[in-house]
Amino acid sequence: MNKIILFILSIISVLWMSCNDFLDVIPDNRSILDSKSKISKILVTAYPDQSPWLLAEFSSDNTDDNTNKWSTMAAVERPAFLWKDVDDIDNDSPQAVWEACYKAIATANQALDAIEKIGNEDGSLNAQKGEALLARAHSHLILTNMFCKSYSSLTSVTDLGIPYMENPETTVNPQYERGTVAEVYEKINRDIEKGLPLISESGYAVPKYHFNKKAAYALAARFNLYYGNYANVIRYANLVLGTDPSSVLRDWKVLGAETNFEKRANMFINVANPANLLLTDTYSYWPLIHGPHSVGSRYSHNQVISDNETSGSTGPWGAYTNFYLHYFSFTGGVPKYQVMKYGSDYFEYTDPVAGIGYRHMVQVDYTTDETLLCRAEAYALLGDYKNATQDLVTELKAFSRVYSVDSAKIVNFYKNLNYYTPKAPTAKKRLNPDFVVKEGAQENFIQAILHLRRIVTIHEGLRWQDVKRYGIEVYRRKVDGSFISLYDDVLRKDDPRRALQIPKNVISAGLEPNPR
């Protein structure tokens, strides 16, 4: 990950890039942040430039081993798929994600420190303060989602958290404690609640490259879903979706009608699309690895998963052919099945003659579609199946030609569907959460919501969080055409590998590793 960002290096006091000694030199140029415009400029870099999506998708049940007939592209792929510690430090690796998040956090902390020093009695820096707080919460949530167990009211008071950085470092070789997941969630919640009233969209040329109001509320909705505060999920989702959610959802019909994949990718990340709430630029191989290329086909989302569980599966809404956006499959036996949303040709040439540079992915971090499904889940967990049904119907109206589902259809479809086994797969997985999901209607509604979210957000890393939150067990399979064989390994509900191992260089620096 050989990227040098000179602007950041000149103004932030800690870059967690070398973890043998977290802070080799303390720059004495922090006074450069002495104006509103300078603070606004630095906040452009308060968002991680690495994506956790590859790690999340490879860790989840969205990926199979298609045998050694097919190749990998990146060293991170096999260990991520097998839930092993990853030594690779290139793009998409645990170390890359860890460093990018803490670098973004350091930027947010530098901005907050500057605001405090300048003074904000007149509120003129409220927008910058709000953005910094939300950006800090966002990066810490990514770290917690990837490197910790999911939040649990039963175990989070003792589960290992991650260091929550709230101030710029002023000492060489500071010592950090991981704390607990409960402590991290409390601090994320505090930053969100402090930041939300301060967010303003004025002053930004492109608000969707920053935490604008709707993006901030979408973060709050997702976070509170993971936190188990369902009334807050509904409250914040309402502020994102308004009184007519259908008017702000993605137009999947128009998107699916575009047959040029690169044009479709540009449509998907268009800042003018009301469904897109926050977009960030990352360095990632993920669009290439999961995209319409034979490269990276060994570990991938394949036909067996697609036909039975995701983009080619049947639900209470009918067959997958009703969806406006269909999966893409290859000729010549290539096993990869992809739903074309993200382009693979955003390449920054550092040496055009040699043809080298950096591969980028512009990712949509928060969308109205996901927020609507967060609200549907919150309604279902509160036993409000009428509103949960309405939210599912609203999403299906945007996503599918057939959307005439009702509570009875939802309950009966999943009631009559067999539970998944690795050799007889279905979309219905056994749920083992630490919170109560009642048998019958409630479980069937949750099955529907998890199923639809898995389809709508395929390739975007969110399935891994559902696997963790609901204690869904994951089997590793080798798939060769119609022949399925099993690895001698299963990710059980209490498996400590559900928390990815923190980077080796951070462990070497003295931070407590995750248990194995």
Q: What this model shows, in words?
A:
The protein has 516 residues and is mainly alpha-helical. The protein has a single domain (6-70, 79-499), classed as Serine Threonine Protein Phosphatase 5, Tetratricopeptide repeat (Alpha Horseshoe), CATH 1.25.40.390. 40% of the residues lie in helices and 10% in strands. It has 19 helices and 9 strands. The protein has helices at 6-11, 36-42, 53-59, 77-81, 94-118, 126-147, 181-195, 213-227, 230-241, 252-257, 261-268, 286-290, 303-309, 368-381, 385-399, 407-415, 441-456, 462-469, 504-508; strands at residues 64-65, 276-283, 299-300, 327-329, 337-339, 347-351, 356-367, 474-480, 483-491. The strands form 4 sheets. The protein has a 3-stranded antiparallel β-sheet with strand order 2-7-6. It has a two-stranded antiparallel ribbon with strand order 1-3. The chain has a two-stranded antiparallel sheet with strand order 4-5. β4 (327-329) and β5 (337-339) form a beta hairpin. α3 (53-59) crosses α18 and α8 (213-227) runs parallel beside α14 (368-381). The longest helix is centred in the N-terminal third of the chain and has 25 residues, at 94-118. The chain is globular, with a radius of gyration of 22 Å. The protein starts with 5 loop residues before the first helix and ends in an 8-residue tail after the last helix. 49% of the residues are buried. Residues 1-31 have low confidence and may be disordered.
Defining traits:
single chain, TPR-like_helical_dom_sf, two-stranded antiparallel sheet, mainly alpha, SusD-like_N, SusD-like N-terminal domain-containing protein, globular, 516 residues, Serine Threonine Protein Phosphatase 5, Tetratricopeptide repeat
